[in-house]
Write a structure and sequence with these properties.
51 residues
Length: 51
């Protein structure tokens, strides 16, 4: 296996791991954070539209 292939494999594996970890963390906070996140998201979108 060449260095490039090795690198690509590692990047993919890391991305996979991060994605899993992130979704696990997100699920834990979801109930509390989701409403807050939605508010922020909507406000941000509103600000962008106004400019």
């Amino acid at each position: 296996m060449g260095d490039k292939q090795m690198y690509e494999y590692n990047v993919t594996a890391n991305r996979d791991f991060l994605h899993k970890a992130r979704s696990r963390i997100a699920r834990r906070f979801e109930s509390r954070m989701y409403d807050e996140w939605l508010k922020i998201k909507v406000l941000d979108t509103g600000v962008e539209l106004n400019q």
